[in-house]
Design a protein that fits this description.
This protein is mostly helical and 127 residues long. It is built from five helices and no strands. The longest helix has 18 residues. The N and C termini lie far apart (58 Å).
């Protein structure tokens, strides 16, 4: 029998992790709007293998490039007046933590977010 390979601390597993989080009414509405955009673009409902967030310039359904999504997200966050430490934490962790969704995160995920916010404050302290 082979031995399991141990991961280094902080190393992420090779397989994606999935977590079920209840959708708010606003999120459900946004996903339905995205579904309608898909139908308008491709003339059919999305199939399970199709991306939710698709490249609007593609002739066939394909995922939008992550960097494009991040850029749009950052622009929207700046435009909405999101505090800079929250934007920094989003960039570091890939998540937006709110009172409403924090209860669905693990202690480690919350700690990662809090550490990023605290890091921003340390980096921007006046000396």
């Amino acid at each position: 029998m082979g031995r399991k390979k141990r991961r280094n601390a902080g190393e992420k597993p090779n397989r994606p992790r999935y977590k079920s989080i209840p959708l708010s009414p606003e999120m459900a509405k946004g996903l339905e709007e995205q579904r309608q955009r898909f139908i308008e673009k491709f003339g059919r409902p999305p199939r399970p293998e199709n991306p939710v967030f698709f490249d609007p310039n593609a002739d066939e359904p394909r995922p939008i490039i992550d960097e494009v999504v991040d850029q749009h997200m950052l622009e929207a966050m700046h435009k909405a007046g999101v505090r800079p430490e929250m934007i920094y934490a989003y960039q570091k962790t890939g998540r937006i933590v709110t009172r409403e969704n924090s209860k669905h995160l693990t202690k480690a995920e919350l700690r990662e977010w809090t550490d990023a916010v605290n890091e921003w404050h340390r980096l921007h302290e006046e000396k």
